[in-house]
Amino acid sequence: MDWKKAQVKDNNLVEVPSRWLHLYYYEALNVLFRFENSLRVFVYTVLKDELKDKWQDAAISGGSIKSETKKRIKQSNEYGYLGHDITSPMLFLNSGELIDIIVSDAYWKYFAKYFQATKSIVVTKLQEIGTVRNSLAHFRPIKEDDIDLIKQNTKHVLLEVEKALVKITSISSLVPTNSEEPWYLKLKALGSENINLSLFCCADENWIRLCFSYKIPTLEKRKITEDYYSFKVGGLRTVEILRNYPDIKNNCIYLTDSHIFGQLNAEFDIASRKEFSIVISKGTLLDNLGEVEKAIRNIIVKVDEETELLKTDNLARGVLIEPKHANAVVKTGSNNNRYWYVSLDALKSDSAEVSEVEFWGTRGNYVTDFVSATSQYPWMPSSVSDVESPF
Q1: Which 3-state string (H, E, C) describes 245-304?
Q2: What's the rounded Cα separation, in Å, for the pair 331 and 308?
Q3: Helix or strand holding residue 91 (H, E)
Q4: Mean pLDDT estimate for the chain
Q5: Which of 7, 195, 290, 353 could join 15 via S-S bond, C-beta 3.0 to 4.6 A?
Q6: pLDDT at residue 353, rounded to an integer
Q7: What are phi and psi of 365, to 5 degrees?
Q8: CB count, 10 Å around CB of 324?
Q9: Residues 136, 30 contacting (CB under 8 angstroms)
Q10: How far apart are the first and last CA of the chain?
Q11: What would the pLDDT profile of 150-177 be if each residue is shown by its tens digit?
């Protein structure tokens, strides 16, 4: 068997062997992959917001999300050497089950507002997509015309769904400082010297993003050469917030890290911050404002206590703050300009070791066409495509 490979030519053009499947098969795979994973994110978001910590009790054929996916995860782990280590139950639900959840008598009331059609039409269009999906998944031939159908149906069915997904993943407007919203008045002053809180909302203010910024402390500094420093710094274990503060975990939709940019100050100490965000619906925040505020206050106190502990004993380890290694080295740029490159890779959260569904990893690439352009989905430890250039 001669499995010929595709070749990457000049200008990133790809030459596909003529014996490979017709090109439209790959286009179908791309559309269906993105459709199904966008549907997963959407279904989770709605169920989590409506059912809180009971969302995994939602019924599917044969049992609940929790009971059925637990068995599938166990089966997958038997071949753990294949593919990525996946723990999110949402990635073990297929499109048929996602559709059944959406249109079920029990849950349609939660999903109906996101569709510009009657339930019967939504069911028909989703089932048509599912038919093409099943043909491809079971390696039956598909027609080129089927691509137009799944694109059209996806556009019709997910029009409002995509708007909702963009809304919750691209919250970038600071809440006005003169806002009289009760939740804003309660939370706006929270923070300390070590960690501060910024408050963001989407355009219709139905989703709130609580952005925490932790000042990374230099616990130990060693000058190895004129061009190289080694550090021990305080690292914020963001996932532990979900594990230790149930009022945050049960009420939020997701928690994400932001990319950390390494910087040095004039004294050659680390001058960087680690940010993480918690996204929660306004309704949930108002209904549980006292509990959420208390949890945030407790997080700030814990961060302060453990940061001060590590400053006096950098061999200690806290629940939220732990010592991590970093380094800074002088590099030469394209114009022979020399600059300090600060590596803080050790402070990143390892998505592969996180089982909390509320943790969506490190996200920084926000798109307005979520369904067709997302390069990395929640719960996936790697990207699925390159980031499309805006130019």
Answers
A1: CHHHHCCCCEEEECCCCCCECCCCCECCEEEEEEEEEHHHHHHCHHHHHHHHHHHHHHHH
A2: 33
A3: none
A4: 92
A5: 7
A6: 64
A7: -100, 100
A8: 19
A9: no
A10: 42
A11: 999 999 999 999 999 999 999 999 999 9
Q: Which of 167, 206, 45 is nearest to 111 (CA)?
A: 45
Say how far residue 274 (Cα) sits from the centre of its chain: 16
**DSSP character at residue 4:** P
Q: Helix (H, G, I), strand (E, B), or coil: what is residue 378?
A: coil
Nearest alpha-carbon partner for 95 in 38, 22, 165: 38
Q: Where are the domains of the chain?
A: 7-169, 174-365
CB of 328 closer than 8 Å to CB of 268: yes
Contact at 8 Å (CB) between 30 and 18? no
209 with 219: CB under 8 angstroms? no
Q: Please check whether residue 84 is in contact with residue 380, taking contact to mean a CB–CB distance below 8 angstroms.
A: yes
Contact criterion met (CB below 8 Å) for 358 and 348: no
Question: Cα 23 from chain centroid?
Answer: 31
Residues in the chain, total:
391
The answer on pLDDT for 92 being more than 80 is: yes
Mapping DSSP to helix (H, G, I), strand (E, B) and coil, where does residue 68 land? helix
Amino acid at 68: E
| Residue located via tokens 């939370």 | 187
pLDDT band at 336 (very low <50, low <70, confident <90, very high): confident
Q: How far is CA 386 from the centre of its chain?
A: 16
DSSP category for residue 315: T
User: Alpha-carbon distance 29 to 151, whole Å?
Assistant: 12
Give, in degrees to the nearest 5, the angle at Cα 312 between 311 and 318.
65
Q: Which is it for strands 228-236 and 321-332: parallel, antiparallel or unpaired?
A: antiparallel
Question: Strands 207-215, 218-225: parallel, antiparallel or unpaired by DSSP?
Answer: unpaired
pLDDT at 81 over 90: no
How many Å apart are CA 385 and CA 391, to the nearest integer? 17
